[in-house]
Each structure stands twice: as structure tokens, then as C-alpha cells.
Amino acid sequence: MEIIDPKAEAYASQYTSPEDALLQEISAATWASHAHAHMLSGHVQGKLLEMISCLMQPRRILEIGTFTGYSALCLAKGLLKDGKIHTIELRDEDASVARANFNRSIDAGKIILHVGNALSIIPGLNETWDLVFIDADKVNYTQYYQLVLPLVRPGGLILADNVLFHGQVLQQPITGKNAKAIQAFNEFVQEDVRVDKVLLTIRDGLLMIRKK
Questions:
Q1: pLDDT, position 5
Q2: Secondary structure tally for the chain: helices H, strands E
Q3: pLDDT at residue 35 above 90?
């Protein structure tokens, strides 16, 4: 199901600042060789992530779901000089690709890649997060959120991707394990009085959550 008119998406891309050369190469390589290339954040969403990071100027960013490294590189652009982004990838093969991409970036020294289960890794990081980006397995979104929210500073942001889940959350009844998990997550955040939130209809849906 198409949520956003492809012509509107193309128009948005036309009037969005272009990707840098490395991001263009990562995008092209991912689409050419990865069976799940649609998971890439892409041009417009990537630029939004970059802009949010640049506005916040965070010292510590957490990304759950690295994929091939595109979004981490976008987020890293706004880090303070002593800032770090910790990014977690479950799959060894994707982590290997991301690591190679990070090593080509001027921000390589600011990016810390962890490979494994995020639910196990996050408690051991001992950080307070300014910005968190959740873009991993959908069935664990609510668990990720509950785990990281206490670690986010007041005024910090959590961004959750794919909250429209290809339009499946708009259908009644909602079917499919992932769509049901996303719907449950959206409802959980909606009822959480500890945060303000706004759901953006960009790409596959991006939920912006600010801790009070």
C-alpha cells in the first residue's frame, strides 16, 4: 500500500539538500546489492535526521538498527566535537558493511558500532542519551522504548521509524505480527504522559517523541 504519492516523494527529494558523495554511494550500493534495500532511510529522511541532530547538537546518540550505516552517518553530522553515536546491529553481514562505510567517513572516530542483541547491549553502555533512533525489529519496539526512555535526558528525543508500517496500521483489522507490534507501540506511546509526541508522515512514518 502506497502511503505517500511517489510524485510527492520525488518532489520532496528535488527540494531537499542533496546527499553528500559517501551517502550517495552507500545508497546506490545498498539498492544494487541488498535484498532488503527498502530498509535504507534514504535521502529525505536522512536529511531530516541530520537536521534534527544539527539542531540538537547532541553529545550522545543511540541508534538501534544500523543496517548499512546510512542513518548513523546522517545523525553523526550534528554531534558535538566530543560527541559519540553508539549504533547497534544484530546481523553480522550488515554490521560488516556498515563498519566499512563508517571507516570512509570523516566522522569515523565518533561512531561506535556494536554487534548483537540491543536489549542485551544497551544496559551495559552506561550513557545518558540526548537522541535515540529506533529502526530495528518491530516486535521489540515497545521494549526498546521502555528500556531507553529512563536513560534519555529531559528534553531529549526518541525517533521511531516505520510507524505507519507500509500502511498496514491503517487497515482494519490489522493483520501481521509486525503491523500489530507497531500499532501496539504507537498506542503505548500515545498513552505515555511522560512524553510529547508527533507522528510525521514522512517515508514510512516517523514518530518524534520528546521526553518532558
A1: 85
A2: 8, 7
A3: no
